Amino acid sequence: MDSMKLTMLPDVLTWENQPERLEVGATDTLNIAAGPGTDWFYDPAGSGRKHNAPLALFSPPDENCLLSTKVTVGFRSTFDAGVLFVYTDVDHWAKLCFEYAPTGNPMVVSVVTRGKSDDCNSVYIDGDSVYLRLYREADRLAFHYSDDGKYWHMVRHFTIGDLQNVRIGFSAQAPTGQGCHVQFSEISYRSGELSDIRNGE
Fold it and tell me: Which of 26, 108, 143, 159 is the most buried (most CB within 10 A)?
């Protein structure tokens, strides 16, 4: 499948890398399976670049917008993750992950890449689901997570440069394991600005 349309998104999703398996539920729930050894990460020590995890991306029509979803991950191996992704080109991208940490706990993790990746662990999560949100305002970005989809905690406030040609969307990864299944449900896109990216709105 080269592209697909979900009713709650303003544009078609196109694939940067194809998934191992894809299912779209009746309520536009998106299920993506990543194959073994898949990831997006450019080692800051310069020892390697990996960009083979599946990406389903669309072009947001609004300069100010939010994309959120409930992410449920079938965790099996270290660094398995469901991901919200923002992409301008192969050297400038960022991801907000619900990831299986080396400790054996699910965790919210963010990666910002400008040629090399800046990796940051945030907070442990109980269970196999969490809400993730991506916010764009002109050329600045913010990542948030939520336990209930109502009150949002800021993870990161950053930029990757000019966002004129930005695309955003969804990914799954299994860097160390044999594959990972991720369900994206309660997907929501809306235009508009946050009054304060730190106030939990």
Answer: 143
Alpha-carbon separation of residue 98 from 142, 148, 174, 193 (angstroms):
16, 15, 12, 24
Q: What angle do CA 112, 113, 119 make, to 5 degrees?
A: 50
Contacts of 197 by beta carbon, 8 Å cutoff, 6+ apart: 135, 142, 144, 154, 157
Q: What is the pLDDT along the chain (201 residues), one digit of tens a residue?
A: 678 889 999 999 999 999 999 999 888 899 999 999 999 999 998 888 999 999 999 999 999 999 999 999 999 999 999 999 999 999 999 999 999 999 999 999 999 999 999 999 999 999 999 999 999 999 999 999 999 999 999 999 999 999 999 999 999 999 999 999 999 999 999 999 999 999 888
Between CA 197 and CA 153 the distance in angstroms is 9
CB 180 within 8 A of CB 173: yes
* Tokens describing residue 187: 């997907």
Burial 55-91 (b: 16+ CB within 10 A, else e): bbbbebeeeebbbbbbbbbebeeebbbbbbbbbbeee
Residue 41, CB-side half-sphere exposure with 13 Å CA sphere: 24
The answer to whether 97 and 110 have CB atoms below 8 angstroms apart is yes
CA distance 180 to 38: 9
